[in-house]
Amino acid sequence: MIHSTIEKDLDFAKPITQLNAMVITADKHIQAVIKRAFNEATSAQFNAAWATTYNAGMNKLADHHYDICLIDYYLGLQTGIDLLHDADRNGWQISAILLFDTMDQQLFHEAEQAGALDCLVKEQIGPQLLERSIRWATARRHEQVMCAHYADLEQRFLEQAAELTQLKSISEDELTRRQELERHVDESLSRRARQVQTSTEIAQKIAHTPKLDELFRQIVNLVQQQFGYYHAHVYTVEGDYLVMQEGTGNVGQMMKIVNHKIPLSTPKSLIVRAAKTGQPVLIADVTQEPSWLPNSLLPETKAEIAVPIKLGEVVLGVLDVQNDTVGSLDAEDQILLMGLCGQIAVAINNRRLEDRREEAEENQRKLIQELDAFAHTIGYTLRDPVSLIIGYTELLKAQAGLPDNLQEYLNAIARNGLKMSHIIDELQVLTGVRRARIVPKPLSMLRIVAEVQQRLAHLIQEYEAKIVISEYWPTALGHKPWVEEVLAYYLSNAIKYGGQPPRVHIGATAQSDGMVRFWVRDNGPGFTPDEQAQLFTEFAHLSQRRVTEYSLGLSIVKRIVTKLGGQVGVESDVIPGEGSIFTFTLPRA
C-alpha cells in the first residue's frame, strides 16, 4: 500500500475539493445509492474505485491509497471487520466507514475497535447523510494524524533535551580532568619558579578565551612572547592532515592565508612524528637531524620542539616551537611545553564541547519554535472548519426534521466537534504557557472563582450542579489568567464527570511549608491508584475513556502550576459518591 507521510497528511490549510474513494460491496442497490450520492455531493468531487469481493478489495487497498473507504460488513464468508483487521496487520492506514444492514450497537462497537471511523445503516443512507459521514470521518482522521505528529514533535524535543544533558555531563567530566591536569603541572613546575609563574599566566589567559580561533592566536603569541622563542605555530589533526591554525608574526599569517597543512604520511617532519607517536620530539640542532624538514620562510631555525596536544591518548594537534640558536631548547623547555599542551588540549576540547552545546541549544530552541508554530497553525487552521461543522450540525438538528436515530448521529457529531474545539483551545493555552515570561503577583481568589463560575454558567445549568465555595482564601502568588484556566479545568471536570447531579466544593488551605493548597472536591466515582498515576501525564495512552478525557487538560494544568512554582495532585478512595479531590499549590504571598 502506498502511504503518505504524516507531514503530507497534516496539510490542513488545503481545502478538501477532491477525494479518492474505495467502495467494497456486492449489493447493487447500495452501489447505486453511493454512486448517486457521489454525483450529488456539493463539498467535494469523488474519484471512486469499486470492488465486489473481499479479495478484490484487499488487492486494491494494497496498490493504492484512498482518502475514504466505504466497506460492506457482509463480504461472503468474511466481513468488513475482518478486512480492517487484515489491513491493520499489513500496516495500512485506512479511513473506513462500515455499512450494515441493520442497527446493531454491538457490531458498531466492534467496528470502532477495529478502526472504523463511522458506521451507517444501508437503508438510511442518502446523499446528504453519506456526505456528512465522509466529512466527519476525514476530519477525525486529520485529528488522529495531528495528535500523532504532535506527540512525535514532543518526543524529538525530549531527545534533544536528553542529548543536551549528556553534553553537559561530558563537559563536567572534562572540566574535572582539566583541573587534575592543572594540579599535576603546578606540582611538576614548582621547582622551576620562573616556568611556574609564566606557565600559569599563559594558562589563565587561555582558559578565558571563548572561541577556538582566538584560543590558537593566544597560544602561539603568549608562548613566543613569554619565553622569547624565534617562532611558534599550532596544528590540529584534521583527517589525514595536520592543518596549521595559527602562527606568530608575518610568517605565521602567510602560512595561514595559504592554508598550510602537512600530510600525516610525510616521512620527513618532526611535527608529523610527534602527532603519530604521541610523544614530544626535541631537536637541539636541526642541522644534525636527517628527518628534519626545513621551511624556507623560517631560515633562522636552529632548534625545534614539536609537542603533541593530547587529551588522554587522543592527539588533537601539535604545538611546534623553533629557536634561532643551537642548543637553546632543552628538556626544561620540553617539560614546560608538555604541561602547557595538556592545558591546551582540555581548552580545545572544552571549546568544541561548548560549540556542540550551543548548537544543541539552538536546535532545541528551533524545535520549540517549530512546536509552538505548529500548535498555533493547528489552532487557526482547524478552528473555522470545526465551527462550521458544529454550526451546520445545529442547523440540521433544528430544521431538517430528521428521525430520532439520525438526530442522535447529529448529536454525536456536535459533541465530538465541541471536543475538537476544546482540544484546539487547550493546544493554544499550552503554547502560550511554554513561551510566556510572567512575574507572579498576589491573587484575589474569590474574584477568580466568581469569574470561573460565570464562565461555566451554561455548564452548571446544564448539569444542574451545586457549587459550594469556602469562605477562607489565603493570598497566594501567581498569574491570574493561568490560575483561572487551572480552576476552570478542575471545576468543569468535576461538573461533567462527577456525580448525578454534581456537588462540588471549592476551597483553600494555608500550609506550613509556605505554600497555599487549593482544592476542588466532586462527588463522582473516583479513580483507582493506577488511574491517578496517569491523570496528569501528557499524551498517555489510557485504557479507560473516562480517564482519557481528563488527560490533555490536566497535563496543561500541571505545566501551568509547575511554571508558577507549585505542584498538582489528586486524592481518591474509589468510593462511589465520595468522589475525588484535585489540588494545586502556589507560593503564599
How large is the radius of gyration?
Answer: 36 Å
| CATH T-level topology of the largest domain | Beta-Lactamase
Percent helix: 40-55%
Low-confidence stretches: 1-15, 540-549
Shape: elongated
Class inferred from helices and paired strands: alpha/beta
Total number of helices: 17
End-to-end gap:
61 Å
Kindly report the name of the CATH homologous superfamily of the largest domain: GAF domain
- What's the pLDDT, averaged over the residues? 82
Please give the CATH architecture of the largest domain: 2-Layer Sandwich
- Percent strand equals 15-25%
Tell me about the largest β-sheet: 6 strands, antiparallel
Number of strands: 20
- Number of structural domains: 3
**How are the strands of the biggest sheet laid out side by side?**
10-9-8-13-12-11
What is the CATH class of the largest domain?
A: Alpha Beta
Please tell me about this protein's structure:
It is a single chain. This protein has 589 residues and is α/β, with parallel strands linked by helices. Helix 7 runs antiparallel to helix 8. The two termini are 61 Å apart. Strand 6, helix 5 and strand 7 form a beta-alpha-beta unit. 54% of the residues lie in helices and 18% in strands. It contains 17 helices and 20 strands. The N terminus is likely disordered. It folds into three domains: 141 residues, Response regulator (Rossmann fold), CATH 3.40.50.2300; 176 residues, GAF domain (Beta-Lactamase, 2-Layer Sandwich), CATH 3.30.450.40; 152 residues, Heat Shock Protein 90. The protein has a six-stranded antiparallel beta sheet with strand order 10-9-8-13-12-11, with helices on both faces. The longest helix is centred in the middle third of the chain and has 69 residues.
